[in-house]
Amino acid sequence: MASNVTISKEVFDFLTKLKNNNNREWFEEQKPIFKKHQSEVKNFLEAAKVNLSHHDDIEKMKLFRIYRDVRFSKDKTPYKTHFAGFFSRLGAHLRGGYYVHIKPGESFLGAGFWAPNKEDLFRIRKELEMDADEFREVINQKELKSVWGELQGEEVKTAPKGFDKEHPDIDLIRKKQFVFMRQLSDDEVLSSSFLDEVDKSYRAIRPYFDLMSDILTTNLNGESILE
């Protein structure tokens, strides 16, 4: 297992400076330094992917671009003030993904389903409508909860169309996202053990992914929908 790759304080220092100088002129002058820190973060993500590959099947790792899409935003600052990466689980058989967000004072890990398509969202909701006991059992497992806390995600206000707003599990059915987030201190991110902590966190979320993969690859009778 890779364990000697770290995030340096210089990465945080650069992001802080970028926050205070979020303009193209400054960034162009600092581009060689940005490239150095971007490479450092990419190396960290690649090491995290190696660790993940020992206990999960990862289709791809993505380091997100630093450039913001400002076309539809009131905030016209051109650059993100964080580094972020995402690991997609393999194909149609495994679902969900892992996320790393590195930003001074606002770093976190994420795992789950940020934007399920309408078919997947409907399938999850129908499963919860039929029987949410196993789902609740998994998200309340002691180890998972001690690392990740409560299930999070945006929700509709009352009930999705076609679902009873009085259903006993409407608190789950209302969700549009099914994600977990673990907030991180700067000291945790800069620690020599951060890579191992990332992997331990991702291992702890695995029962949730196993259940959701099972739901999303079967119909309500538990029969596989994969060819």
Automatic annotation (TrEMBL):
<dbReference type="InterPro" id="IPR015996">
    <property type="entry name" value="UCP028451"/>
</dbReference>
<dbReference type="InterPro" id="IPR012808">
    <property type="entry name" value="CHP02453"/>
</dbReference>
<protein>
    <submittedName>
        <fullName>DUF2461 domain-containing protein</fullName>
    </submittedName>
</protein>
<dbReference type="Pfam" id="PF09365">
    <property type="entry name" value="DUF2461"/>
</dbReference>
